[in-house]
Specification:
179 residues; mainly alpha; 2 strands; 58% helix
Amino acid sequence: MGLKPIFLNITYIIHDCHFVYFLLLNGICPCFFKPFFLHRYAAHKAFTMNRFTEKVFFVLTWLFQGPNYLSPFGYGTMHRMHHAFADTENDPHSPKYDETIWNMMWKTKNDLLCHCQQKIDPESRFTDGVPQWESFDKFARSWPSRLAWAALYFSVYWQLPMYGGFGYVAPSIPDESHP
């Protein structure tokens, strides 16, 4: 008896492709929208967009970041302040002035929320030209939106074990009765 060849089971590959696509979209696309739209465009104005394209990017950022959606206005404003006040007490997210990294992250979250809700009135140099779509931001940052994303993620990831987990990479040994 020789060794049986191990190969990828094509039924797993076909059956789980929707999971592969979901995982790729869920893992790679957010890595595009944060640096491209939030950082380069909203915070640094490295290029221009017309109003329609800007709104498309708001929606795509929400679609691909899901429950982790960050407001372009809040992010852009805070990031500009970070550059202006780097590692000083006015820096909105400097770890130098908090006891732990968790305190810094909690403070950053609260500051971002205050910027989004416009409870903070920063200088115009931090807000001029930062994209803003208040009604969409309010919806995208809402608890119903975040809970809907959580339910979607849960329903997708819950199904993985039912289909053999990440079966698209699981090798199988052919049955002897089927040559």
